[in-house]
Amino acid sequence: MGSMMRQYSLLLLILAYPPISWSGCREAQLPRDCETLCNFDQQGQVINCELRAAVLLPADSRYEISLFKVLPVLDMAVYAARSLKLLPHWLKLTFLAQDDGCDATYAQIGAIDSYSKCVHVFFGPTCDYCVASVGRITKFLNAPLITTGGFTFDFTKKKKTCQDEYFMTIRMGNLAFRDIALFLIDILDEYAWKKIHLLYDTNGQAKVAGRHTCQLMMKSIVEYIKKRRDLEYGTFDLDATKISEYPQILKEHVGTSYAVSWIKTS
């Protein structure tokens, strides 16, 4: 909790002092006076400033990251930043919560609704399909998407120009499915294993990244294994398999093709 609050405090500080003004990736800009961060008097002095952030998360505590868990942390981060005098007294922070239901369609609708309320930044979504649907349009809305989700390898690709698919999508955190894939490959190299069979449950661990979390992780692992011509792999989805059937599945799909033979000598 403390680490998360420090991250949000730093994030709020960065957002409070934007270094440049940028018009985004859209050629035809729509006039939106409400995007202005601050209002000034005739002498050019700041009257008030408001930073509006859309929080796109599921309103379901079964997910690891939800509105019920994150909104209190955001309030604590604001309090901590103000206590340390990192945020000026004239800056108001407004969080506009939107329940995306961990569903890509509702996440995109929530993003568009938030855009109509002139938000400056999106916090979330975190479910991978939601990150994909919103991440593709934020560069045209001229509002960055900041997420602790986006684990699939697609989100770890270069995001430096408007031509990049997820430009203006910013991942917070050091771990993604890419890192799990590279870690697994390191283990294979350590023991000189050249064949691997990946058994997974398509919708396993849905509380982490939504639908197809495990399938998306396996997709990322396969993406990196394929880059190694010396490695062979196979996959099998356990989604429709009963636990009682696992021994037979292991015999059929692992068997002697992927197993290791050990000879014990006395």
UniProtKB/TrEMBL annotation:
What's this protein's name?
Answer: Receptor ligand binding region domain-containing protein
Domain of life of the source: Eukaryota
Compartment list: Membrane
Task: Show where the Receptor ligand binding region domain sits.
Answer: 71-219
List keywords of the entry alphabetically: Membrane, Signal, Transmembrane, Transmembrane helix
A Gene Ontology cellular component where this protein is annotated is: membrane
- What InterPro entries would the database entry show? ANF_lig-bd_rcpt, ANP_Clearance_Receptor, Peripla_BP_I
Species name: Trichogramma kaykai
Q: Which Gene3D superfamilies match?
A: 3.40.50.2300
Enumerate the transmembrane spans.
none
Q: Where is the signal peptide?
A: 1-23
Q: Does the keyword Ribosomal protein apply?
A: no
